[in-house]
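If your schedule permits, I should be very grateful for your opinion on a structural question. I would ask you to consider whether the tokens describe a fold that such a sequence might reasonably adopt. Thank you for your consideration; the sequence and its tokens are set out here.
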Amino acid sequence: MTKLEKLRPCLEGARVLVTDPVDGLLLEALKAAGLEVDYRPGITRGELLVAIPGYDALVVRSRTKVDRVVIERAERLKVIARAGVGLDNIDVHAAHEHGIRVVNAPGAATQSVAELTIALLIAAARRLHESIELARKGIWKKVMGVELYGKTLAVIGFGRIGRRVTEIAKAIGMDIIAYDVVDISNYAEKLGVSVAHSLHDALAEADAVTLHVPLTPDTYHLMSWDEFRVMKRGAILVNTSRGAVVDSEALLWALEEGIVGAAALDVLEHEPPETEAERKLAAHPRVILTTHIGASTIEAQRRVAVETARKLIEALADARGC
């Protein structure tokens, strides 16, 4: 008998609400464990507040905000599962206060996000968006870019994604300087990269900067006025982490001053853009903006589905004393 078969009798009757689009593998795995699954992608906040008291587990991606109000309405909730990496849309502290476990799938999207990071870096260096736009208009004009070979890339945040980006960037021929708030010396030594003593030290040396940090009170607007002022003129900024890590007004200023030569962003603090600075960034000729697609690959979502389902089932079984 498999572990899942052993857990099924204990889990039968437990109800799971899924409020964002997920891969079908996740739904199938939850149902196979004997769980009753209600799939309601696009549910409104008002509908969520009405429905949540009837569920034992909740599955979300980045759209659904699980704040204290939602958590306090969740009378029988035992597990919140984030089908992805970041937990900034979940009030983890409130969940823990109410004895609710929070699980996610931190490693599942590593390759997809790393590949997008490199794609955005190359696109910014070669000004691909400008050339594509000219071609669409029938204007056959050369756009001059720069090579990445021999350039220095600052990798800010040296977790799974930052390290994978490093491996790919080194294959291109880039020199890497890494920075993190935790000790990364062992990883850096294995990958053959130098470690910066501070964020500003890393920024000052870099021809390009890529951000791979979670959104926390300490990383909110991590890249702001002072940080842009120490960067090399014309440097490239890539952000595939969280939008609020970058101060949009400061970035807009840095672009207009020529400090940042190009910015390639998969994320904004508000999605879609809400503030004047964000709207100006979206329309800026030296900004490449994608619609938060870092983990949006078939392969990543399948890995997310498998990992999320496993962790949710195990956490719910444990909460039920199975």
The two ends are 15 Å apart (CA to CA).
